[in-house]
Write a structure and sequence with these properties.
alpha+beta; Alpha-Beta Plaits; 2 domains; homodimer; about 35% helix; four-stranded antiparallel beta sheet; six-stranded mixed beta sheet; Aminopeptidase
Chain lengths: ~450, ~450
Amino acid sequence: MSSAAIEFAHQNQARFLEELKSLLRIPSISTLPEHKGDVRRAAEFLADDLRRIGMEHVEVIETEGHPLVYADWLHAGGKPTCLAYGHYDVQPADPLDEWKTPPFEPSERDGNIYARGAVDDKGQMYMHLKALEALLKTSGGKLPLNVRVIIEGEEEVGGEQIAKFVKEHPERLKSDFALVSDTELFAPELPTLCVGLRGMIYTEIEVRGAMIDLHSGIYGGAAPNPFVALCQIIAALKDADGHIQIPGFYDKVKSPSADELKAWRTLPFDEEHYRKSEVGSPSLVGEPGYSVIERTWARPTLDVHGMPGGFIGAGAKTVIPAKATAKVSMRLVPEMTAEDTFAKYKAFVESLKPAGVTVDVRLIHQGEAMVIPTDNHYIDAATHALKEIWGKDTVFIRSGGSIPIVGDFDRYLKIPSVMMGFGLPDDNLHAPNEKFHLANYYRGIDSIIRFFEEVGAA
Amino acid sequence: MSSAAIEFAHQNQARFLEELKSLLRIPSISTLPEHKGDVRRAAEFLADDLRRIGMEHVEVIETEGHPLVYADWLHAGGKPTCLAYGHYDVQPADPLDEWKTPPFEPSERDGNIYARGAVDDKGQMYMHLKALEALLKTSGGKLPLNVRVIIEGEEEVGGEQIAKFVKEHPERLKSDFALVSDTELFAPELPTLCVGLRGMIYTEIEVRGAMIDLHSGIYGGAAPNPFVALCQIIAALKDADGHIQIPGFYDKVKSPSADELKAWRTLPFDEEHYRKSEVGSPSLVGEPGYSVIERTWARPTLDVHGMPGGFIGAGAKTVIPAKATAKVSMRLVPEMTAEDTFAKYKAFVESLKPAGVTVDVRLIHQGEAMVIPTDNHYIDAATHALKEIWGKDTVFIRSGGSIPIVGDFDRYLKIPSVMMGFGLPDDNLHAPNEKFHLANYYRGIDSIIRFFEEVGAA
């Protein structure tokens, strides 16, 4: 099954890695205003690369936020058009002191490349470009199918600009299917397609007590403490089993099909290994009666990410802070909607307001849950390509994470997405020491080359 | 009643203010390691001033932490010896953006001097030095009584070094009474002596879940969330009325005497004004059945000061943090003890541990509650002096704050303390825009001069 393009990819692995390292050195953290210039730099880097490899109509598209990068090659008459999607922005790197090597100085160790964004999503998105390069360079500048590339810079902050672009300019992205590589293999060596995503609402609860910070000796006992009030609210959101207490929260939850649940039970999953090696907590938590896979793929959740405010330095400061905030997100499953869930959550939080404080509940961003149909030519082509490269049958999984753009592709472009990702469960995405297994980077490129060839051959 | 010393103090008010400003410019924040040099600079500033005004045996005493400043003048044969105590360290200044003028650039507005430490305690402690200067300069270098000055640099972080010094070297501080100016007037123009202090334990609760930060999409629903767990613990520490739920917490609380409660009811206190102008919250909180004065002076409390950990930047980061910490303090009243209360608190917090996490409870610092006897010569001299300067009878109050050294003076030096302070309830101590009313700075100096003269005249 070896093609000229795959030969080319194999011969250029060292260069493909060096180029990825250059991209990883750019700290394109979309949520931090001080990195705005770096985010743009990452966009320009990709536009330059797309031009160099022979893509056409390369453009850095300005938005109200971070720019989009677009390119296309549309000369494969009669062949399907792929919309290759990825994101070039990354999560913040804190806590910095837990990184073994600096997050923006890519470092190779034990067959992995370590850096913020290595797997999420620079490394995975860049596989698309390298697959396209291999195909273009070995076919006289031609591709076996039509391709549009769209890469965003706001995925980690909610993807507002690409959502707007997809909604307002569907004709500019007109395609037959999307290829999204921002997911992972269920286990090492096990080719995997993701066919379901959770949605999300990311919120802030701000509690205000006194008008200024007060001395806890002088005012303690009479002045409201916003952290205590906020803790009372948060504690009331879940019971001891992790069951969410928001009235009506579970009303619209659609359970996976019996077939899907049956297939999940055959996946190679060792709960004790997962607890010990991936999570590392004394025990796992969550709703009784659901397996870990169901809890993380098919059940909604609520998590607190941080509680800014007050005194967080070393030592002691005896202050009753004027305000306290909690960053709280919920993951949603089909058929929950972000709008309905946020309304129920906001009403419940407001109803929990303790005496002496005011409460403000804000929506920061949102994305809808998604289940992808598997009975189409593109999923078939993907499973054939993966079988050739990995020598194994593909497993269909869901992800507990959220890729809201997949819902927008469905809604506004009316196209299915193929979520073919090559991360590993222990790649530390969103955490210190994020990595990408180099063998998966190279085999991912091969897989995408073969997938494009399969789609084009039909 | 005008004495030569008071004349001198009046003529030198402008200079006394300029000197105080120089001291306020030194950011001697004892809890922040990066200000260690500034803390020492403040100590040296005071030692220089003590030498200049004519005090003897001036010494910057090294400790394992920040230094102590000592001086004495012991030539008033047969007269009592005063131990004049104060502290030259200050609280952190954050949140910086809420200061109208920078915390370490003293600024005069509306008859006040604004700066971190203006009232707590640089301005008040410095009144002692200026009173001594006025007496020494107008009496041929003599004082009407014997004086030892001891000034510490760790009051805001628990006062460990001075506590150690008092315990290990009581002979070096041998005195008949202490003068402590670190409290406030009950109301403007109302001379006040503080005769009771709450004690304190300052603690941290650290909750750990996963071994590393995890992606809340991938792991949400199965991985423990340490912030949720911590909120569940904190919410269980108090009921909706603010009553603390730690078993046995109130067992040893000694109520104020009927006479004391009766006197408190005659104090000019407008609860609605206090709520609106000092606290500024929608309502006050606290235990039903107790007045605000009782709740803040004579009842124990529990407050949360901040909850470090996780993501606290702007925007969104979808992380399940590996750990979360809460800074929690309790104010204690007679006859509670720090040791007993911490043991009960620790046991209760540990008993509340939710599934999936570990909990570590740490004591950061502590101080005992204190009630001062009022039937002695020094309290009499103080009320006489205050009557002369302020034209009104003194009120006896307690403070909800903690000055652990007063307990150590009682325990190890066997001397009573006169807590004569001149702050105002709205001086914003421990908060942005801390201030000291200049009229109170000047009248405080006069009051201390007159107090020293009264004690020496007996």
